Amino acid sequence: MRSIQFIQEKAKALLPELIQIRREIHQNPELSFQEFETQKLVENYLQNKLGLKTQRLANTGVVALIEGKNPQKKVVGLRADMDALPIVEVNDGRPYRSKNEGVMHACGHDVHTTSLLGAATILNELRNEFEGTIKLVFQPGEEKLPGGASLMIADGVLNDPKVDVMIGQHVMPLLNTGKIGIRKGLYMASTDELYVTVKGKGGHGAIPNLAVDSVLIAAHIVVALQQIVSRNANPAMHSVLSFGKVIAQGATNVLPDEVKMEGTFRTMDETWREEAHKRMIKMAQGIAESMGGSVDFEIKRGYPFLKNDELISKICREAAEEYVGKEQVKPLDIWMAAEDFAYYSQEVPSCFYRLGTRNEEKGTGVSVHNAKFDVDEDAIEQGAGLFAYMAIKHLL
Q1: Cis peptide leading into 161, omega within 30 of 0?
Q2: How far apart are CA 266 and CA 182, in angstroms?
Q3: What is the spatial distance between Cα 285 and Cα 281, in angstroms, rounded to a whole number?
Q4: CATH code assigned to 4-187+305-393
Q5: Which of 349, 215, 335, 197 is nearest to 266 (CA)?
Q6: What is the pLDDT of residues 189-224, one digit of tens each?
Q7: pTM: predicted TM-score of the whole model, two decimal places
């Protein structure tokens, strides 16, 4: 097997081309499950540049295999997501700003796709030097339920050949370019969407005794539901319950018939997750009924929690330390955001790690899901090279 230095040099040589690919994807973002042009770009690169056979899964997903010697020995899956977000990108003069107004790559999925194409180029050149198979997984819809990963799995992405290890990479603007973040064990939370409709009886604000105040009922429910976390959850269990949208179409002197609320519940334990669902519904119904109203409480079950396998994470950390230097690899805290890569982690031993993209001089320290988000494109060199080396590390 050729040295790390070879992979690093190859990644460096690829960087100008990869930056152009990233910018093309960034300029032409597509929402979840609508990644048709991005799919064509990926297919064109894999087929025409690398000579790989591709397969479509989950409608807009793409899968390809790089077979080394003894292909059945072990299969390592590398995953990238391709979808963008419904955000209007700030027009700050960058030449690769989104051409699709109202849609933006504000979470780095353009970088993930580009990094995997770069890694595929390197791995394809090394295919006669490792044993096993690399499965390239370009998935749709990470940003939207039910999650593209779940649909890819349903379509058989983890089979034929059976995947033994999954690795995912995600940009992180909290880490400076050149640094890598890895955490073993529990890392990211499950996520559920809450849709609540509180029903009362509308009336005049000056004579509330003739109405059933849906706004007051809703307020009591929002406050009381915080007890689910503060008084019912084990204090050692990470849980978050938040409502970010409350709509009461009344007026200064009008009590509305109903109030609509939307929120999120996140945790890292499936047993507690199920119990919390039941407690939320029961508490909301009890409060509404005791105040003369009623409530419809819908919970849309989202992604499961993400757990990095101990051994796989150890191998990925060792690979990162060898590739970028031990001092550049940083531990990560538990993060209550969610990721549909969690579906893979529930099925096969997996590792989901972070690629630093922060560069204050280039203005790339803004958080993801922000209209000003951007990355230090120099990080793509490391994104492609390290992705490839991690895969090889699991096949040695």
Answers
A1: yes
A2: 21
A3: 6
A4: 3.40.630.10
A5: 335
A6: 999 999 999 999 999 999 999 999 999 999 999 999
A7: 0.94
